[in-house]
Structure formats: C-alpha cells, structure tokens
User: What shape does this take?
Amino acid sequence: MIETIASKLLVQNVSQYFILSFILLGIGLFGMMVRKNLITILMSLELALNSVNIAFVGIDRLNHLIDGEIFALFTIALAAAEAAVGLGIILSLFRLRKAENVNEIIDLKG
Amino acid sequence: MKALYPDIITTVGIIFLIILELFLPSFDLIGFLGFLISFISGVLAIKYSLAGYRFNEWLLDINAFSLFLKGVIYILTSFVIFSSVSFFKSKKTFLENVYTFLLISLGLSIMVSSKNLAVILSGLELASISMYISVGMLRDDYVSKEASFKYLVLGSMATAFFGIGSAFYIGATSHLGIISVSVNHNTAFALASLFLFIAFALKVSAAPFHFWTPDAYEGAPTSTTAFISTVPKIGFYAVIFLLASYIFPITNNFSYIVGIVGVISMFWGNLVAYAQNSAKRMLAYSSIGHAGYFLIGFSRYNPLSVSSTIFYVIVYAFATAGAFLVLSILEKNQSWTHDMNNYKALYKKSPFLAAALALFLFALIGIPPFATFVGKLGIFLGLVNSNAWFFAILFVIGSVIAAGYYLKLIVYMFFKEPVAEDNMSLSLNLFDTIGISAFLVAVFFFGIFPNVLFDIILKDMFHG
Assistant: This one.
C-alpha cells in the first residue's frame, strides 16, 4: 500500500526535476530584480540557491551517482551562511537608517 | 603532505587570532601577528613550490603551480595587512578586519589547490562571504553597509550560477573534476561552460556583470578595497585558467564569448572611468577594464598569452594594491573625500605620496619600465601568434584609451593650482612608507627582471 503511494509520488520522468529547478531559479532571479523589500530579496536568493539542489538530485537519479548530492549539501551550508551574513547586514542597515527597501539604499550610484 | 603546511599554518593562525582577540584587543598586536602568519605561509609555499612538492590525495591536487599561487596570495596578503593596520586604527574599524583578510586568503588558497568543482565552490565561498563581511566593516558607516549588501546579492547570484553550471557539468560528464573530458557537441556541456563562465565573470567584475564593483569598491574601507580588488583576482583567474584549459576549448567558438565579454568589459570600464569625479571610483572602473584585458588573454588557449595573463594578474595586483593603499593613507585625513579636486597640487603637501601614486598609475597604463608592460606585450604577442588579430587590435586600442584617465589624475596632482584655504596636513608614518615602498619595488623589480616571475610560471603552469 505505502509502496504504491510512494511510487506514484516519485517523479517518473527525470526531466521534470530540471524543469522545476529552472522555474525556481527563474523565480529566484526575477524576484531579486523586481522585489523592493530587502528581506524578500534575500528570500529570492535562497530560492535561487536551493533550485541548484533540486537539479543535482535529479541528475543523481538519472546517472545513479552520489557526487551531486554531496555538492547539494555544500550548497545548503553555503546558503545558510549567506543568509546569516545577509540578515546581519540588513539589521545594521536598518539600525543606521531605518531602511528596509531597495529604493531607500541608493547613496551609491552603481 | 608538506604541501599542506602553508594552509594549516594559516588555519591554526586564524583560530589563534580569534581567541587572542578576546583577551588582547590591540590592533598592533593582532595586525603584526596576522602579517607574520601570512608571510610565513607565503614564504613556505614559495619554497615548497620551488622544491616541486605536490600533494594529490582526497579531493586536493596541489602542484608546484598552485603552491606558487598560494605563495603570491599569502605574501600579498601580508603586505596589505602590514600597510593597512594604521588606516584601520585611524578609522576605528572592527578588529576582525585582520583575520577576515586571512580568511579570504585561506579560501583562495583552497580554491587554487583543487580541480574538483565542489572544493572550488567551498573555497570560493569562504573567500566571498568573508569579502562581503569585510566590505561592511566600517563602523557606523551607512555607505559601507549598503555596498556590502549589494555585493552580497550579486555575489550570491554568482554562486547560484556556479551551482547550476556544476549541475550541468556533472550531468554531461558524470564527475565533478575539471579534467580532460571527451564530449562532442553536447548542449548540457555547453550550458555548463556558459554558466561557470558567467559565475566567474561576475566574481571578477567583467562588464555586463560589473554593477556591484564601483559601489563595493567605493563603500569599503579603502585598505579593504586594496585587498579585495587585487588578491582574490589571482585565485579567480587561476580557476579561469583551469576552465580555459579544460572546458572552454571543447565547445565550438566558446572562446569568442570569452573574448567578446573581455572586449565589452575593457571598453566599458575604460570609457566610463573618464566620467568619474572620485579617484576611488575611477580606480574601480579601471579594475573593470583590467578584467577585460585578462579575459581577452584567456580567450585563446595559447601558452604565451595564458602565461602572460597570469603574470599580468600578479603584477597588476601589486600596482593596484599600492595605488589603493596610497588612497587609504590620504583618507586618514578627516576632510579627504577622494574627489579629484582634493588631489590638486598633492605633490606640495606630500611629495612621496604623490610620486608613489603617479608611479602606480604609470604602471597601470603599462609604460615600459614597469612590470605591467611585459604582461600586456605577452598577451598581445600570444593573440597575434594564434591569429586572433581582431582581439589583438581591440586590445591595443583599449589599452591606449585607458591611458587618458590615469594621466588626468596625474595632471591634477602635479600641474593644477591648489585650492585656496586648504590647510590639511598629511601625516605619514614609518609603516605606511615601508609598505608603499615594498609595492613600488615589486612593480619595478618585476618590470626590469620579468624572468624571475615568468620562469616559475612557465616552468610549473603547464605541468599540473
């Protein structure tokens, strides 16, 4: 019983992993460009980084490998470190100027 | 096993400094120990490189060339720490600055010591995350935090691209090592090389991906700019060299993408630099222009152009770090804003600093006695040898365009009348003088005797 449900839930076609991964990467990059709130930008960043993990898992299922999943573990740890640093910077920005939107942090004109 | 000693010394040293800082929060002590740790690791790495040690186990592949690069990275780090301690003291920045520099150099050193994409990623991110932190290290300074956030967002985008590129790479080749692979006309492999190239183009601030560069370099404390604009480039271009030797040549015409990004970067950086009023931003755009030169150098896998690009990156690091360090010494004066008008008649206030900055700028133009000329000449000859006349001619035009804005700053320093009611005093302590002189000597020495550096590069580079 459980096995049949599990086999139905598993993705049958490996290419669906890549499609999902690309959609998430696209949403992440799009969100980084259009969203104004700093925390939302950080969330979009995490989404883009995590889409990489899905692609790796899909490839490992396709090729019966393990390297990709280990790479995915690396990416998870890096995403956590990046989120920690990003939140720290947002906190200090907010503390110095009460800024929480991108249109408020335009002192430097790249 | 001995090949690992430089990294082990640095790692232990960083942990020791973090603990020591709790008990003895003194900039002089931490700075001196940081300098010492980094210098010892650097000298050891160069010594082992000349002895030809290698370590090829686990996922690491440390050969003589990567030991040489480690040595250059650590020695340059120690020079920058040596000459930036007094700046950090005058700006009252956080004490962590010293060991974030060491962490960045450790990350770069891990990055150059492996051919596995996962290990490269971990080293790259150790360096990058430490860089985001060190950009925002100026206490109570809003601009520094803003620059740090912008750098973080675009830098992490590069990480995402690196990850997706590695996913394609493992999909096409079933392994993560950057070694000779045989795949023909494989779309997944072409996408992998594209994404990996985009990730590194973002990190080295090549033109369509350069938007973080001027902001991050302007907002960071100036000695940190001296560090992040130079030392990481050595590590990044070492990885781009790996990609250029194993991955780029496989896809047809991929070298044109690298070359065209280089050309865009060169012209964009060098032309927009003319419009800048701030000397610090001007040097930031100059580094975008230089990213263009280096990518053009890697656009063909020709032994001459590739080895002279690595040579050029190293001597460019010395010249740019020196120029930014002169700026940092000037900035210790409270009213200094890096506006061009501040530089009027600098030679009257401080002949040494004005002369040093002028010499560094001449070096960046690439005028013969300086080492950068040798690098430029080598890239040009290599491009001509591999019949890439299009890129060779554009390379020369781009370099000539670049001369103008460096000369503009020199004209401001030597030939403009000083602004009235200007009574700023420039203090210059012994450490600053020694640090700047060391960079000057390096730029001159490698210009007059380029074979000292070039022989090591040529000996080790193609036998990895």
Q: What stands out?
A: Residues 30 and 82 of chain A are 19 Å apart (CA to CA). Residues 1-97 of chain A form a domain with the Helix Hairpins fold (CATH 1.10.287.3510). Chain A touches chain B through 41 residues (CB under 8 Å). Chain A is about 75% helix and 0% strand.
